[in-house]
Amino acid sequence: xxxxxxxxxxxxxxxxxxxxxxxxxxxxxxxxxxxxxxxxxxxxxxxxxxxxxxxxxxxxxxxxxxxxxxxxxxxxxxxxxxxxxxxxxxxxxxxxxxxxxxxxxxxxxxxxxxxxxxxxxxxxxxxxxxxxxxxxxxxxxxxxxxxxxxxxxxxxxxxxxxxxxxxxxxxxxxxxxxxxxxxxxxxxxxxxxxxxxxxxxxxxxxxxxxxxxxxxxxxxxxxxxxxxxxxxxxxxxxxxxxxxxxxxxxxxxxxxxxxxxxxxxxxxxxxxxxxxxxxxxxxxxxxxxxxxxxxxxxxxxxxxxxxxxxxxxxxxxxxxxxxxxxxxxxxxxxxxxxxxxx
Length: 342
Hints:
The protein is of the alpha+beta class.
C-alpha cells in the first residue's frame, strides 16, 4: 500500500498530463506511467518525441505501472486529502474517503522511456524562448519551421521563430561555443511556460529540468538545418519612431473588421495614417504621431499585431527597407515582417 497527498499528486499530474499522445498507434503512449520507489513517486507521459516527468514524495510501497490518463484524472478529482493505492490482480486500486477506484494497469516496464544522461547547463529556457514560438507554424512542409531555433554564434545566443512572413527573435550575450538546434513546437510551447534551472543538449535530444517543480522534459530535436534568418538582419534604410501602444490599438481595431486582410501604413511629416477597406468598400482610418522617414506599405494586420505584441508597449524605432520589410530596432527583442503586395 502506498499513501499519497492529494494536493501534491494532483499538482504533478497537472504538470505532465498534456504530454500524452492522443493519436499514437501505441496505446501505451496514451497512458500515464506511475513509478514508486523509496518513498518517491514519478509520473510520466510522452508521445515518442517528447516526454514529461514530475516527481514527489509518498509513503510506502513500490510499483511501476501504466494506467488510463483520463481515468486517473477522474480519480484524483474525486479523492479527498489522502489517497491510498495498492496494485493487485493487474489493477490499480485506490481508496480515498468513501471514493474507491479499480483501474486496469499495464506493466510500466513496457513504456518506451526517453532518457538523456549528463550534467545540465544553467539557464532558463523560458526566458530565452519567450514569445518567439508564436511565429512558428503548427503545420508546414518545411519541417525546420515547425519549431524554435536556438543558434549560438559569435558570442550571441538567438532564439528564433518564423513562418516565412513573420520572424520573432530574442538575443542574449553568451560564452557558449557555436551551435544550432531546432526544438519542436510542442516542446517549445511547453518550455515557454516552464521555469527551468538548466538544460542539456546531447546528440539529437534536449533535456530541461525545473528543480522547484521536480519536473523534467526530454524532447527529440528536429533533424534539419534552419533557414538563414541572419540574411534579413541588416540595417534598413528608412527609420521612424512611433508609440507602439497607439499602433497596437489601431491595428487591433482593423483586425476585428470582417473581410479585412490588410493594414495600410502611410506616413507624412509628423503623422502616420493606418487604414483599410473591407469587402463592401467601407474605409477605416486612424492617425497616430510619427517622426522620421515617410513610409507607404501594407501588412497583414494579424501578423503585424503578433509582432507588436511581442515587442511590448514602448515608444520604438521601426525601420523599413525599400521592398517594405519592417523590423524593430530593439537591442534584444526584435521582429521582422514581410509586406503584403497590393
